[in-house]
Amino acid sequence: MILIQRYRHFFYIINEKQPTFQYAIEGRLFFLAQKFVLSIIIRIFAASVPTKPLNDAQMRGAFLYVYVYSQNTLMERLPHFTKHYMTETDLVALLESRGLIISDETKAVRYLESIGYYRLSAYMYPFLKVPKESHQYKEETTFQQVLNLYRFDKKLRMFLLNEIEKVEIAIRRAIMNIPVQITGDIYWLTNSVHFANQRTFQDTKNTIDKEYAKSTEEFVKHFKNSYCDPYPPSWILGELLTMGNVNIVYRNLKADKIRKRISHYFGLQPIVLESWITSLTLLRNACCHHSRVWNKVSSIMPVSPRRIALPWITQPSNPQRVYFTICIIKYFLDIISPNNDMLVKMQTLFSNYPEINLAALGFPNEWESEPLWTQGM
To answer: In 54-100, which residue ranges form alpha helices assigned H by DSSP?
Structure first.
């Protein structure tokens, strides 16, 4: 049995044996694991009455109990993998036998050799007839249509990565600099007094020590060769951290005043900023690792803002689809770079691939008329 303790709108998992970090916001469970093991089935039960802390310890909040079942029970019911390896030539023949129109078999073989059948099959799936298990393609479906969808997803990733970069840099600067402005401590990032959870602080500091020791960046070499201080100021040291690390630092800040000042800089509440940074980080990682993005359903549910400084979306949309995260990116860009050209670039991408169904990305009808997209026009 695993116990999850609530702290500051979050439920932190207490589990010494498995290095997994999970948290919940307003009743929704999120998984942010260092090593999240997908081989377990988790059932979550919320207590119907307030639960006393273990051993009468003074812990705030409610508790959740999570029952974890090992994969062994599930595996006993599943069949073995029996499919055999096939060459690209054989795979082309297989696709044709299933109704996919391939005008140039030689070129198709080369594409499968360079992309891989398994990766490309994710872009073939939408073209399958129902039931999908029959593996028969819809009438007149061509290999070129599959390639076009694959290329669109690639262009989408490149576009999103370019826009996310601007947002991440601005968020990092705010989180590294604003605490200095409030506390006057330029080394606050490595000073435990500024953090609520000392265990989390120590984990972060270990990461900092590791990255600082192995870094070959010129700015790190310059500091080590010029000064005797053990660490550079936060605005320098923060450049070595990932956005995931930066978000952990922000969540763990002890002073609500600092957390609010940072979030208010972006016109958001702290809980929204934390959630949105997580969404951006997951999308950025998917783009960096060339994962499918266009129709993917996110594993987390971003928080919808109740109060927000600039125009936002009004139509219902699925927060787990990429459209919602695209809106998050646009919102941040409107804060840090008013009159940005994100909409123009996105419209250009869509016009180059008119056959793409934007509903698969989560775009609602008439999305361009939303306040988020019409301001400044």
So the answer is: 71-75, 88-97
Amino acid occupying residue 27:
G
With b meaning 16 or more CB within 10 Å and e meaning fewer, what string describes 83-114? eeeeebeebbeebeeebbebeeeeebbebbee
Residue type present at position 195: F
Calpha distance 194→370 (Å, rounded): 40
C-alpha closest to that of 94 among 61, 121, 55: 121
- Give the separation between CA 279 and CA 300, rounded to whole angstroms: 8
pTM of the full structure: 0.81
- Count of C-beta atoms within a 10 Å radius of residue 214: 9
> Three-state SS for 59?
coil
C-alpha to C-alpha distance for 360 and 294, rounded to whole angstroms: 7
State pLDDT tens for residues 338-369.
999 999 999 999 999 999 999 999 999 999 99
